[in-house]
Amino acid sequence: MYSQGLIGADGRTREDEEFLARFQARIDDEQKIEPNDAMPEGYRRTLVRQIGQHAHSEIVGMLPEGNWITRAPTLRRKASLLAKVQDEGGHGLYLYSAAETLGVSREQMTEELLTGAAKYSSIFNYPTLTWADIGTIGWLVDGAAIMNQIPLCRCSYGPYAREMIRICKEESFHQRQGYQILLDLMRHGTDEQKQMVQDSINRFWWPALMMFGPHDSDSPNTAQSMAWKIKRMTNDDLRQRFIDQTVPQLEYLGCTAPDPDLKWNEERGHYDFGEIDWKEFYDVVKGNGPCNRDRLRTRRKAIE
Ligand code: BYC
Known about the structure:
63% of the residues lie in helices and 2% in strands. It is built from twelve helices and two strands, in the order H-H-H-H-H-H-H-H-H-H-E-E-H-H. The protein has a two-stranded antiparallel ribbon with strand order 1-2. The structure holds benzoyl coenzyme A. Benzoyl coenzyme A binds at residues 49-50, 53-54, 57-58, 61, 88, 119, 121-122, 141-142, 145, 148, 210-214, 219-222, 225, 231, 235, 285.
């Protein structure tokens, strides 16, 4: 499908310097690239990888929260959690459709997820142990996702950019419902419930920061993706923005971050923060996080 636009698919385009320069000029001119347009094979592959990973993240991301639908404390909380998880299913479907416009089938992408060839966001390999985790996921995880996804609304690939607009609107509802859960627990909860919120933040803080990916200096894909305007901001810049925006919300909650190095740096105009445990990040990405096997087992069972 749509193979007439793909480099190497039928020989109608050649990836010589002139072709690449013409493509880059379109990108620099902020033109959107559409499914039937000629594009470098590397551009297509990068998008299939990123959009596929993004779609898998939405679908696998339903699992930690889905676990709490039957245990939500009130009917209102249950209805909003149900709506959130359904939104995530919808995001996954839009994203698979966008990837399909690049000539890859949903079956292929699913196969790659199940064999471990395709990744999904590391964050979904951590367990949801308490109701506060549902609040923390909405606030921190969807918050990090919005920070990462707003710039993707300006991605050079048209179908991906357009669908990110709707996805971001829905993510912002998710983030608010999460923060509201935590605020309620902190304002009206018992000491034990307040402690539950702090414990949840302690467990999700660092994994949320890992969502932005490795440092720019260790990110093999960032430079080319920025040049092609697939990514519009780098991993480190987005992580810093997220921290700067989130710390005041953390303080308003009356909670703390599990990072003794987190402090405002007047000179930089940003928060300084401690080093991420990159060993843990790569362990989780390689499939050795607390829930990786369980998540894939559940997906396999659903598909079979
Ligand atoms: N987890 O060169 P880099 C949601 C991989 S779901 C796992 O920086 P890139 C939600 C990366 O794939 C939102 N793997 O890569 C749903 C690469 O591996 P390969 C999910 C990671 O692509 C339900 C390698 O590390 N959002 O909102 O330039 C409930 C080197 O990295 C991670 C998206 O998917 C990670 N955290 O940048 C609640 C957004 N980080 O494939 C919420 C779209 C890196 O080269 N994706 N890797 O072997 C992106 O923006 C980019 O792909 C990333 C990584 C910033 C994530």
